[in-house]
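This part of the workshop introduces the protein records we will be handling. Getting from the letters to the tokens is the skill we practise here. An example says more than a description, so a record of this kind follows:
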Amino acid sequence: MSADETTRYPLDTIRTILERLPHVEALGLRAIEMHRGSCLFEVQYAPHLVGNLETGVIHGGVITTLMDSAGGAAAFSVVPAGASVATLDLRIDYLKQAEPGKAIRGHAECYRQTRHVVFVKGHAYQDSTDDPIAHFVASFMVGSVGFAPDAQQ
């Protein structure tokens, strides 16, 4: 990726700021791994996140937010410090229902970066990355009027 290590956001700063966002706190999302260009988020199963009371399956919006948050964190990890990032496009293919009672993980990885856009792909899964719940691709605009970690400190 293009920015020098000394000019990027520190990974701990990205993790701390994103985990303090109200919607991330409300859903209980947690960054469990952060690297330059990738992020792994997790959401624990909770009754208030259920979208189908009969089956106990977590609502698809929770999975969408999980993947968008992991993707945004991965994008922030490669842009210059001080740059803002906003979700430009997010496409999700849901492949199967999540199993009730189990945590869901969302992994995101940057695969291309231009001056103004970071492209990210990833998946959500429970037990194995080989058995995904959903796949996603997203693009994040750099330097927009979107969110920037420094503005939150």
User: Anything to note?
Assistant: Strands lie at 30-35, 38-43, 50-52, 57-58, 85-94, 104-113, 117-125, 132-142.
